Amino acid sequence: MAPLTRLTVLAALLGCAMSTMPISDITRCQYTGMDGHMYDLSPLRNGNYMFSADAYEIDSYNIYSPKGSAADPLTYKYYLNVCANVSHAPSACKKTAPILRVNPDGTCTALGNINAAIFDASPGADGVYLSYYHGDPSGGSRVFHYQSSVFFVCDNSTDITGPTFEHQSSCYHSHFRVLTKHACK
Ligand SMILES: *[C@@H]1O[C@H](CO)[C@@H](O)[C@H](O)[C@H]1NC(C)=O
Ligand SMILES: *[C@@H]1O[C@H](CO)[C@@H](O)[C@H](O)[C@H]1NC(C)=O
């Protein structure tokens, strides 16, 4: 191989490697995907979103939105921030976190840690999701911690609609959904 060709191949490989390396930047609240498109979620940061959600608690492990159960719903209150801790934690919570949940019994659960946050591309559609890991230990476990993901779904007609709670399942992982134009390409 001629030196020039080798260089061209190397450049192509490097270029390829660079374009397939997604970047999650929580400080800037931005995610750059494999195609080079950058999602800027910073307009939603520090919104301190607060909402209640009725849900059926199947067991402490799984919490579902009200459907498919004969039991009375329980009301959970959520405090959610994007790329930041909740500014003013409710009195039930000893310390803040990016997502706090005040449970029906008045106790507080941190559903993640801002220092264990990462953006990723939504599977199968435009948009991104933000995961917060390493929240409070779950059920006294030293191994499992509460965690959460906020899915930002493209909707050009709104700055933000939601967040809404979807469910908590496998490994105490809560899912939330936000409609926003900032998730559009
Ligand atoms: C978020 O809150 C936690 C718990 O109070 C605190 O230790 C941490 O320093 C905060 N981080 C940021 C970036 O605000
Ligand atoms: C959303 O709006 C932007 C800017 O107007 C446009 O470029 C984009 O195609 C729209 N996306 C969708 C999914 O409608």
From TrEMBL:
Please list which residues make up the signal peptide.
1-19
Gene Ontology CC annotations of this record: endosome membrane; Golgi membrane
Keywords attached to this Swiss-Prot or TrEMBL record, sorted alphabetically, are:
Disulfide bond, Membrane, Signal, Transmembrane, Transmembrane helix, Transport
Provide the MRH domain boundaries: 27-185
From the Swiss-Prot or TrEMBL record, state where the protein is found: Endomembrane system
InterPro entries reported in the protein's UniProt record: Man6P_isomerase_rcpt-bd_dom_sf, MRH_dom
What is this protein's record name?
A: Uncharacterized protein LOC118427436
| Provenance organism | Branchiostoma floridae
Name of the gene this protein is made from: LOC118427436
